[in-house]
């Protein structure tokens, strides 16, 4: 099992980034997949996910209307538009079932002028 994020970086407020997560060992359609973020000293925040089965999506209130999650069979993506300084965090992708979860090593997103 391996999850590898990419696409993070430094962007100005109002800019966009697209995070990717390459997943090996799973067919993503059979699991709930998503992204969370973490800032040192703060609690982990669930950003977005796609539920297995019906494929319904969830977005945190703080990112709704600005972020879009998607996936294909082996990768998941997080399109982030209209970025704000408060979106600065390490972003992690994950795959989970009812009994376990795996996540990647994270990619840093910094929104600053």
Keywords for this structure?
0% helix; single chain; 4-stranded antiparallel β-sheet; 113 residues; 52% strand; 11 strands; mainly beta
Largest sheet: 7 strands, mixed
Low-pLDDT runs of 5+ residues are none
> How many beta strands in the DSSP annotation?
11
- 3D shape: globular
What fraction of the residues are assigned to beta strands by DSSP?
Answer: over 45%
- Helix/strand class: mainly beta
Distance between the termini: 37 Å
The portion of residues assigned to helices is under 10%
Q: State mean pLDDT (0 to 100 scale).
A: 95
Question: How are helices and strands ordered from N to C?
Answer: EEEEEEEEEEE
Radius of gyration: 13 Å
Counting H and I runs of at least 4 residues, what is the number of helices?
0
Structure characterization notes:
This protein is mostly beta strands and 113 residues long. It contains no helices and 11 strands. It has strands at residues 2-6, 9-11, 17-24, 32-38, 45-50, 57-59, 67-71, 75-80, 89-96, 101-103, 107-111. The strands form 2 sheets. Strands 2, 4, 5, 6, 9, 10 and 11 form a 7-stranded mixed sheet that branches. The mean pLDDT is 95.
Sequence-ordered SSE layout with sheet pairings:
Elements: E1 2-6, E2 9-11, E3 17-24, E4 32-38, E5 45-50, E6 57-59, E7 67-71, E8 75-80, E9 89-96, E10 101-103, E11 107-111
Parallel strand pairs: 2-11
Antiparallel strand pairs: 1-3, 3-8, 4-5, 4-9, 5-6, 7-8, 9-10, 9-11
């Amino acid at each position: 099992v391996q999850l590898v994020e990419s696409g993070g970086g430094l962007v100005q407020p109002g800019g966009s980034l697209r995070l990717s997560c390459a997943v090996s060992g799973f067919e993503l359609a059979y699991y709930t997949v998503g992204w969370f973020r973490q800032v040192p000293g703060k609690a982990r925040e669930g950003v977005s996910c796609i539920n297995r089965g019906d494929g319904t999506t969830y977005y945190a209130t703080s990112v709704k209307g600005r972020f879009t999650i998607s996936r294909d069979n082996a990768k998941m993506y997080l399109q982030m538009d209209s970025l704000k300084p408060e979106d600065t965090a390490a972003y992690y992708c994950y795959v989970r079932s009812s009994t376990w979860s795996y996540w990647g090593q994270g990619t840093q997103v910094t929104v600053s002028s």
